Every structure is written in structure tokens, then in C-alpha cells.
Amino acid sequence: MRVFFIGFGQAGGKIVDMFIEQDKKLGTHSFRGIAVNTARTDLMGLKHIELKDRILIGQTMVKGHGVGTDNVTGARVTADEIDSIISAVDSRGTHDIDAFVIVAGLGGGTGSGGSPVLARHLKRIYREPVYALGIIPAPEEGRLYSYNAARSLTTLVNEADNTFIFDNSAWKNEGESVKSAFERLNNEVVRRFAILFRAGEVGRMGVGEMVVDSSEIINTLRGGGITSVGYAISEVISTRTKQQRGLLGGIQKNIKDTFGGKKEANEEVLMGEDRSAKIVGLVRRAMLGRLTLPCDYSTAERALVLLAGPPDEMDRKGVEKAKSWVEENIAGVEVRGGDYPVNSEYVAAVVMLATVGNAPRIKELLDIAKETKEEVIKSKEKKSTMFEEGIEPLFE
Ligand code: GDP
């Protein structure tokens, strides 16, 4: 799939920067990306999105200093300057793309407010689907972030064709602050979504035996709402390494490869024999393990199973069995799937659970937002009655 990314706000810009970095490194040219922000310094901090593709908006209103956590201003500035954003998108070329993906942290100001506005306009203008990848804040970031995210998401699900969610709180470690975890979390985001969004592209290794093309991803997402993604990897062991393993036992090593970053190679071992059972096992681990948004997978309407790895490790029967297993476990009956050959020492499984009906974290977010709204209204009421009587103001 050819994706046009728009990184909106700080988190969105950083994540799209990483997608572009990976695309350049692999030489795959599947991704195009721009960054939009009200804060000049955030745009300057990016490394891989070209300077001309970094768009500063709201200069007359906030003078390049950002909108803070005021997402209403974020939305307003975006609406005011939508023409310049759309013309920037247009001039980068859209004729060969399959989808737009807007990436943003939903708890802040610029991306939170701007994303739904941009989704609405892109949908009006282009025929290609418009997806969002929204980062939701951890409760410890404070009520305002949750309130912002709830309002943004409530709007976004009506504007975008589907919204992928990544939950910061599900991914930060115990005792770790969200801020110090950003880089690691962003790696986790890119690792999963880069595989998914690259499905169907012809890489150096050719096409898969059971290709997942962009229309299959688009059809899986057509129910709208929110979507969560699972992921698991398994090391491929060559005969030689197997022999070494036999001698040395379960040694660990760090490997840098297609799936990004350094990984501890202590994952389940994928042997040549019994391949289809291993694939089913890998897909099960992807779906039952930590999802980008923890949710009740049995409420997903549709799913897509994607295996990426060396062609020798792919197995048609395994993919079919894994699809059936997923189908037995979700609400709907539509499960698509296939493989994608890459040069890697791992096989990766990505399971996209589309249009999820129940996710406790989203409910929690909406509940916090409802309470926060009441508190905001109450405090406004207090303020308005406090100065009502007794003292004459200087002027009316
Ligand atoms: P904006 O620049 O006004 O759009 O605001 P941010 O992008 O900073 O969005 C704030 C939200 O995004 C908060 O919930 C932050 O925790 C989260 N956030 C900010 N930067 C990152 C990042 O690099 N990675 C992740 N995962 N979340 C981030």
C-alpha cells in the first residue's frame, strides 16, 4: 500500500519522521510524508522529513509558538489554513497513493484539534480513504489530556474512515514516565504499522505467495470506528545456527534488521518443519499479546492477518489455519490474510482487529472526559456567581 502520511503536531511529526527514516533506509519508497504544526521548534527537531515538507500553520495567531494544550485553537487554526495544507499535500503528489494516514497525539493541542478538521477536508477532496493513527494519553498525564483526547477521538471517528489507536499507558513500563518512554513507544508504533502499511508492495524479495493488496486492507477497515493491532515475531534459525544453538544452548543476541531496532533474539524459534503450526502459534501470540489498544478482540468486526518474513518460512496452509483461528475468535466472519516476503532473520505476524466494539481504555477516557466537563462547567458557574453582588465594577 502506498501511504501519504501527515504527521500533525509534535507526536505525529516525530512518528512520521520515523516512518520516512525507515522507508529511506530500506529504499522501499512506499511512504510519503509531511509534518504540520503550529510550533516552529517541533518542526525544526525533525530529521528525515524534508524541510519543504514541514508546514507551519497559525503564524498570525500563535506566532510559531504552538497552541499549548488548547485543541479548540488547534482546530480553528487548521480550519483557517486548510487551503495551504491541502495545496501542500497536492503538490507532493497524490495520484499514486492508496490511502492517507494522519498521525497525531490526541491529548495535546495541535494534532488533537487539527486532525479531525484535516480528515474532513481530505475526505471531501480525495477518493482515497483517510485513516487516522491516534495516540491516546496515559491517565497520569492529567485530566486535560484525557479530556482533549476524548473530544478529538469522538470527532475523529466520524471524520476518518477508520482510526488506529495506540495507547501510551498500555506500552509504558511500570515506574517509567511517559515522556522518557516516547522513543521506545514510537519504535513500537512504527514496527507494527510499517509492516501493515507496506503490505502488497513489491519489495526486493518480490511478491508473496498470497499477496495482501491495498484493497484488502481498505475492505477490512471499511466498518469505520477504531482499530487495534497485534504483533509478534519469531526468529528464523538456519541449519548452521541450529547446530550452534545445539552446542551452546539458548544464547541471546542482539540483531538489527528489517523489523527495526535491536531485538533480543529470545523469541520462539521457527523451525523448517512443522511450519504451519508455528505460523498459527505466532498469529495467536500476536492477537493474544499486547495490542496497540488493549481491547476485547472478540468484539472486532473484521480482521486481517499478515505474515512477513523470508519466503522459505512462509506457508500457505499455516496462513489459512491462522485465518480460521482468528475468525473463530472475533465477532465477524471476514478475515483476510496473506504474506509479504522480506529479508529478515525473523518472521513477523501482524493482526489487524478492525472496528472493535469494546475497549475499556476508551470507555475510561470518555468517562474521565465527562467528569472533567462537569467540573469545568461547575467551576465556571462558581466564578460567575462569586463576583455578582456587592461591589460595583469600574465599568460595565
Ligand atoms: P501537539 O503538538 O499540540 O499536537 O501535542 P503532542 O503531539 O505533544 O500531543 C500530546 C500527547 O501526545 C500527549 O498525550 C503526549 O503524551 C503524547 N506524545 C507526545 N510526544 C509523543 C511521542 O513522541 N510519542 C508518543 N507515543 N506520544 C507522544
Q: What features would you describe in this structure?
A:
This is Tubulin-like protein CetZ. It holds the Pfam family Tubulin. Involved in cell shape control. GTP binds at residues 10-14, 109-111, 141, 168, 186. Belongs to the CetZ family. This protein is an alpha/beta fold. It folds into two domains: 3-198, 3-Layer(aba) Sandwich (Rossmann fold); 226-356, 60s Ribosomal Protein L30, Chain: A (2-Layer Sandwich). Helix content is 45%, strand content 21%. It has 14 helices and 13 strands. It has helices spanning 9-26, 40-44, 59-62, 71-80, 82-91, 110-125, 143-159, 168-171, 178-198, 214-220, 239-248, 275-288, 316-329, 360-386; strands spanning 3-8, 31-37, 54-56, 99-105, 130-136, 162-167, 226-236, 254-256, 262-264, 269-270, 300-309, 334-341, 346-356. Strands 1, 2, 3, 4, 5, 6, 7, 10, 11, 12 and 13 form an eleven-stranded mixed sheet that branches. A two-stranded antiparallel ribbon has the order 8-9. Strand 1, helix 1 and strand 2 (31-37) form a beta-alpha-beta unit. Helix 1 packs across helix 6 (110-125). The longest helix is centred in the C-terminal third of the chain and has 27 residues, at 360-386. It is globular, with a radius of gyration of 23 Å. 48% of the residues are buried. The model is unreliable at 246-255 and 263-273 (pLDDT under 50). Guanosine-5'-diphosphate binds at residues 9-11, 14, 104-105, 107-112, 135, 137, 141, 145, 168, 178, 182, 185-186. Guanosine-5'-diphosphate is lined by residues 9-11, 14, 104-105, 107-112, 135, 137, 141, 145, 168, 178, 182, 185-186.
